[in-house]
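Q: What structure does this chain adopt?
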Amino acid sequence: MTILSDSPMAPERKQAKLHATRSKKLDPKKPATPRRKSPAKTVVKKAPAKKIPRKSTGTRKKSTRKKKPQQSGWLRWLMLFGFKISLVVCAVLLVIGIYLDTIVRDRMDGQIWNLPAVVYGRVLTLQPGQPISLQEVRRELDLLQYHKVRNPQRVGEYSSSSTRIEFFRRSFDFETGPENQRHVMLTFDKSGLKTIEQVGTKKPLGYVRLEPKMLGMLGSTTAEQRMFLPREQFPEVLVDALLVTEDRDFYHHDGVSPLAIARALFANIKAGRTVQGGSTLTQQLAKNLFLSRERSLWRKVREAYIAMIIDYRYSKDQVLEAYLNEIYLGQNGAKEVHGFALGARLYFGRPIQELRIDQLAMLVGTVKGPSYYNPWRNPERARQRRDLVLRLMMDNGILSGEQYEQAASRALDVQSKPMIATRQPAYFQQLQRELKQKVGDKFTPGIGLRIFSTLDPLSQQEAENTVAEMIPKLNKKAGVSVETALVAADRQTGEIRAMIGGSRPGYAGFNRALDASRQIGSLVKPAVYLAALRHPERFTLATTIDDKPIALKGSKGTQWKPRNYDRKFRGEVPLYYALAKSLNVPTVNLGMQVGLGAVIDTMEQLGVDRDEVPKLPSILLGAFTLTPFEVTQMFQTITNGGRKSKLTALRAVVDLEGNLLYQSVPKASRAVPEQAAWLTTYGMKNVVSQGTARFLQPTFGWAALAGKTGTTDKARDSWYAGADGREVVTVWIGRDDNKPVRLTGSAGALRLYANYLQRRQPIVLRLDWPSKITTVKYDRQPNGTLSFNCSGTQSLPAWDTDGKLKAQCTGNQPKAWIKEMFTW
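A:
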């Protein structure tokens, strides 16, 4: 019998089954009745009956029918909207990327920074036979920050004994081209430098040049200062320290490091504050070069985008080179110091290549916060940061444990104060004027030119020390505050070695050396006497000059009655004596005999602008104005045997590629007869040995110095111009309001010059014995005048143009003491 699943009996069976289940639940102890096995049945499958939907409310039925199409529509709309937004975002990012890429390439492919011109001092060339002392060379090396050691092994080190100096000279790009480092031995004797040898080969050298001192920066148009160095010139240990501290995955990421960001985020969450940054070196470079310092999400996004562009466009070494020259490391006054090259000089005063591992580590540690880790204000904090960098270097295998202990045990060893170079504002003003005149449009600020000047750092340093010591003393002596100016120039080449523009040399302001035009007083007298001595047929050093009261009438009926400083008249005096004692009346008489026109012509030939000199008798006593710079030019010509070398502060200008844009070759041209200049210099030597400058003689008599004091009316100006074998120096002391200082030339300016000579030891003033100069003997008369006598007791040199003087005293030769005095 076939039972159909939808038979009428089915509900009853279900009911019985339900009843049995309930009974089982109610009486769990009662065993279940086993189900009776049914006989085999044949089941005939029937097509499924059509299901009758359950009855439900109309509202639910309506919701069910409309929900599926509404959801599907919203999804399609959202997907379409999201796709459109994505396209817009991608398009915007693409446009921004193209824009940022253009900006990055424009800057990175061109000149990245506005580079100031770096100014260097004069180059010291050492040659065998040069009259330079061992002490002077040692001072030069000390000034250049060479380290004195027992046995020089590294660049920038030297050792010294009583007769020898051994040093490892630095490599340097001179104006004539680069020169490599060199290990040199110098040997000295009493006369100066004897020999120069290459250490190791003992090969004799004809010369060796010391690299010049960096004086500062010029022409910067921004608040930033930096010295550009290519990647290969940075020490590798510096790069290793930087990467292990700031970006250990630098060579493995694409400008942005998700791992570094995650690591920094974890560290900051753990510390509860910002203790670590996730920016890569590339991101830091992007921020510094292209973005502001604002803290915002949008800036971070742009920073990351630019970093990826930089990393894609440029090699890792190019990125490193830019970073090493860009990073901010501190302040030099009002200027920001950027780049490790300049930072090394700011903190340690030495080139980056010569710093020790601990010093390099301190620089790397400073990157995180130059102000926070300032070693002068926070030395302990700076030391802890340095030691952290050293420990990271050790942990990463850059340093051994022994190297770490040695480096971490050292003091910070920074300079006494943050300084790149001492300031010479007066000298730099002259340098800028010459750059404008001589280089013109070739001098473009901001392109990193190198300027080689003529400044001698030793002379400048001692001039500044002299002013710092002497001006307070002279203020006390004068009873008022005085100002000063000083110009020192090479006696032969005219190259300016030092310049002081005021009583505070390091401060910019009114440059009295260049712009203070003051009456020169008795400084004019050597020019007057030279104008006479160039006529040997009329005047010699023994010529008698009247020293009697005179009165000269002016064009308006006025009278001028010159007087000597001591208000005395001597009747008659020899010419050389009048110059040595700086007598006014004999000088006026001599000048009137020569003629005002001839005196003015001579002044012009010596380098004075004739428009500055009125054609009046009073000019014979210096009643006209010149600057200390102009006075120095005049005395340079006189003491250089009548050869004029135009004063200059600029030696050469070189661009970044080493191309020479300008070079000054020292030239001397004949301005006045050598014999006349020689005799005038001889007269100026008598000023020192027995005249108004004899204050110098006890200390420096051995140097055979020449000079001239100068005092103006009512002691408003105190002057001194002096020369040794190295330099001619002009010193002025006075007040800006032109009121008296009550200091004569010998009581004021001469004392400052003497202090300078004590610091900057002079060289003996030697001049060649000119042709047709012979020694003539004289007898001294009771009134002090001299009369010619071949057997006389007093000897003076004379310009014997036609040999008549020599013929009168056959066999007469120059006295040995005169020859020794001048090396004639």
